Amino acid sequence: MLNTIRVAVIALIGMTLSSVSTAQVVDTGKLFFGAGASSNEVSGSDSAVGYQIFGGYGFGEVTRNVFIDAEVGYMDTGDMEKAGGDVKANGLWATGVGRLMVTPSVELLGRLGLDFGDDDGFMAGIGVGLLLTKKIKLRFEYVERDKVESLQFNLVFQP
């Protein structure tokens, strides 16, 4: 069942991206990149420090102060100690991100997508972003996957 849902979501993402690219040429000014550190935990384990890197595309404002982005990335949880041995999860992920600008320099965000790595399945998160300049922002997020919960601190750069 999960594989069927995963294939349907991937197909939907592919159709959406292909229709967007057909409708308009990709604007490289809407690309962004980021990286950060995370505190990760699996139920019953110690927490571990990990990292993530990602890139994305901002589709723009869909209604007043609401923006939609697509992101893909890689996450490594670090080694978490659990009875019976170490636990670690890493791999690729893809999410849709909705952002609400509450002030010109503060945004609230939510994400929903899929993890394709060791903790494969759905992932969701909420967070807040602080725009430092027109090209640099800091984001603090809580992201939950099927097994791993993460508190993330990311730096995002839009060239």
Number of domains: 1
Mean pLDDT: 88
Q: CATH first level: which class?
A: Mainly Beta
- Whole-number radius of gyration? 16 Å
Q: Extract low-pLDDT stretches.
A: none
**How widely separated are the two ends?**
40 Å
Largest sheet: 8 strands, antiparallel, barrel
> In what range is the share of β-strand residues?
over 45%
SSE-based structural type = mainly beta
Q: Please, could you describe this protein's structure?
A:
- The chain is mainly β.
- The protein has a single domain, classed as Beta Barrel (Porin), CATH 2.40.160.20.
- The strands form 2 sheets. Strands 1-2-3-6-7-8-9-10 form an 8-stranded antiparallel barrel. It has a two-stranded antiparallel sheet with strand order 4-5.
- The mean pLDDT is 88.
- It has one helix spanning 2-23, and strands at 31-42, 48-63, 66-76, 80-82, 85-87, 90-103, 106-115, 121-131, 136-144, 148-157.
- Helices cover 14% and strands 62% of the residues.
Write the topology of this structure.
Blueprint: H1 2-23, E1 31-42, E2 48-63, E3 66-76, E4 80-82, E5 85-87, E6 90-103, E7 106-115, E8 121-131, E9 136-144, E10 148-157
Antiparallel strand pairs: 1-2, 1-10, 2-3, 3-6, 4-5, 6-7, 7-8, 8-9, 9-10
